């Protein structure tokens, strides 16, 4: 069965059945990647060490999420800012 045939068949299912298929497919793609997990653990450790060493300062969540000093439509909120 081709991909297009499979999609056509799936579209004939009830919404609940299609949702179950989507859920199963997404879960199959969301597998842990030890290399990425290790990278983020290392990055978190570097950020914590920089914070503890006084190289960066923490910014209260209210300020980050509610203010304009660190958030722009093109960027994600930042949680640390360099000390100048």
Give a short synopsis of this structure.
The protein has 84 residues and is mostly helical. The chain has helices spanning 3-11, 15-29, 34-52, 61-66; strands spanning 56-58, 80-82.
Task: Describe the overall structure.
By secondary structure, the protein is mainly α. 58% of the residues lie in helices and 7% in strands. The chain contains 4 helices and 2 strands; from the N terminus they run αααβαβ. It has helices at residues 3-11, 15-29, 34-52, 61-66, and strands at 56-58, 80-82. Strands 1-2 form a two-stranded antiparallel sheet. The longest helix is centred in the middle third of the chain and has 19 residues, at 34-52. The termini are far apart.
What class do helices, strands and sheet pairing give? mainly alpha
Q: How many distinct beta strands?
A: 2
Determine the strand fraction and express it as a percent band. Answer: 5-15%
H/E element order = HHHEHE
> Which consecutive residue ranges, at least 5 long each, have pLDDT under 50?
none
Shape: elongated
Helix proportion: 55-70%
Q: Which sheet architecture does the biggest sheet show?
A: 2 strands, antiparallel
Q: What integer is the average pLDDT?
A: 84
Q: Order the strands across the largest sheet as they lie in space.
A: 1-2
